[in-house]
Specification:
Distance between the termini: 103 Å
Shape: elongated
CATH architecture: 2-Layer Sandwich
Order of helices and strands: EEHEEEHHHHHEH
Oligomer: single chain
Strand order of the largest sheet: 2-1-5-4-3-6
Largest sheet: 6 strands, mixed
Number of strands: 6
Length: 225
């Protein structure tokens, strides 16, 4: 079944809407925390549809418009691992169409507060109930699934990832970013030190000559004044 749903703006990971869930379930709470990592990892080159294996639960997300669009929004749902991917993406597709129709003109606003579209939860809950049972969902959403047949008939087209791999890659990228920053700092320190050494070397090299020139000028000044 569908356990939780979140709607987030891709450009800055601003949460726009979220379903009201059972936060007494520690496992679901943990997966919702991991969802925040998924949002942070989305980039302009990310897949528009992706399933991420999170163990007992699975993350499914759909991005619309494409992530390269400044108004892109990601619709993510957490389901039981056994829940069919085709139904999960049919559910997300319905959410994206309704959200675009209701809020597309407001998504780009920079002054939006978190969960600005909290009223969208009403539609999410109603749609969630429709997709709660796989058998009734197959029947109720049959025509809708037919319309999605070209995109979803071959579920292998949907990118599949593993949460552990995503977390590991995130740690690696963060580590590489930290190393890169450290190397830049060290490089800057090296350039400053090299510049100082060069200046000191020039002073040591030309200081005696400069002193002699000044002495010669001073003698001439004393002699001919």
């Amino acid at each position: 079944m569908v356990r939780s749903t979140q709607v987030v703006r891709v450009s800055d990971s601003l949460p726009l809407a979220q379903s009201v869930d059972d936060d007494q379930d520690p496992e679901l709470v943990q997966h919702k925390q991991q969802a925040k990592i998924v949002f942070r990892k989305i980039s302009p080159s990310s897949e528009t549809r992706c399933s991420i294996d999170g163990g007992s639960m699975t993350f499914h997300y759909l991005i619309h418009p494409p992530p390269s669009d400044p108004n892109a929004v990601v619709f993510l749902t957490i389901t039981d691992r056994s829940y069919p991917r085709k139904l999960a993406f049919a559910y997300l597709d319905e959410l994206s169409k309704e959200f675009e129709m209701s809020y597309s003109r407001q998504v780009h606003q920079r002054n939006l507060r978190p969960y600005a579209f909290v009223g969208f939860d009403t539609f999410m809950q109603r749609t969630k109930r429709l997709y709660a049972d796989t058998r009734t969902a197959q029947t109720a959403a049959g025509s809708h699934l037919d319309r999605l047949n070209e995109d979803l008939q071959d579920v292998q087209k949907i990118m599949t990832k593993n949460m552990e791999d995503l977390l590991w890659r995130g740690d690696s990228l963060d580590h590489m970013s930290s190393m890169s920053s450290s190397l830049r700092d060290e490089s800057l320190k090296y350039r400053r030190a090299a510049r100082k050494i060069n200046v000191d070397a020039m002073i040591r090299k030309y200081a005696p000559v400069g002193a002699l020139v000044l002495l010669f000028v001073f003698i001439l000044y004393i002699k001919f004044r």
